[in-house]
Amino acid sequence: MTLQEAHAATGIPVNTLRKWARREAVPSYLESDGELTLRMVDLAAVRERAEALGRPMSTAPVEPRPDPAPATIAEPADASASAETMIVPVDAWNKMLIQLGNLHEAGQQLAEARERAAKAETEVVFLRERLAEVRSRRTPAPEAPGPKKAPASPEPAAAPEPVAPPTAPGETRFWRYVYRGWRSRRR
C-alpha cells in the first residue's frame, strides 16, 4: 500500500514511513503510472517495525487497493462547459508557467534598472550643481565695467625669511616646499 494508506492504517506519520523505506527498515518499491510515482510499503513490515520500536499504532481497518483502471475522459455535465473549457497537456501548462515566471523576473529586473537609472540621473544633476558651485568659488567673478581705478603704488617686496638648514636628507624637500609655498602666497 502507499505511504498515505499505511499512515491511515497505522497512524504513523508519512515522513517516518518514508524514512523507514529509504533506510530499508521496511521493504518498499516505487510504482509509477506514467505521471505519478508512489512509494509502496508492506503493511505487515510497517507494523512489525512499529512494534519493535514500541510506537503506538491505531487499529483502523484496511481496505484493499483497487487495481488501476485505464483512465477515461468523463463527458461534461452540460454542453456549455465543454465550449468554454479547454484541455491543456501538463507539459505545455508547465512550460507556460515557467515562461510566466521568467517574464515576472524580467519585469522585476527592468523595474530595478529603471530605479538605478533614476538615481543616477539625480546624482548627475547634483554633481553638476556641485561642480558649478566649486568653480564659482575658485575663479573670481569678472568685474563689472565702470570707471577704471588708478593702479596702486607697488608695495616694496618683503625679503624672504631665512630658512633653517635641514638636518636630514628627507627634510630638504619638505622645507623647500614650505619656503616656496609661503613665497608664492606673498605675491
What does this structure look like?
With 187 residues, the protein is mainly α. The protein has six helices and two strands. It has a two-stranded antiparallel ribbon with strand order 1-2. A hairpin with a 4-residue loop joins strand 1 and strand 2. The radius of gyration is 45 Å and the shape is elongated.
Name the descriptors.
187 residues; mainly alpha; two-stranded antiparallel sheet; 54% helix; 5% strand
What topology does this entry show?
Layout: H1 3-10, H2 14-22, E1 28-32, E2 37-41, H3 43-53, H4 79-84, H5 90-138, H6 169-186
Antiparallel strand pairs: 1-2
- H/E series: HHEEHHHH
Q: What is the percentage of strand-forming residues?
A: 5-15%
**SS class:** mainly alpha
- Bin the helical content: 40-55%
Strand order of the largest sheet: 1-2
Mean pLDDT: 77
The biggest beta sheet is recorded as: 2 strands, antiparallel
End-to-end distance, in Å?
102 Å
Number of strands: 2
Q: What is the CA-atom radius of gyration, in angstroms?
A: 45 Å
Unreliably modeled segments: none
Number of helices: 6
- Which term fits the overall shape? elongated
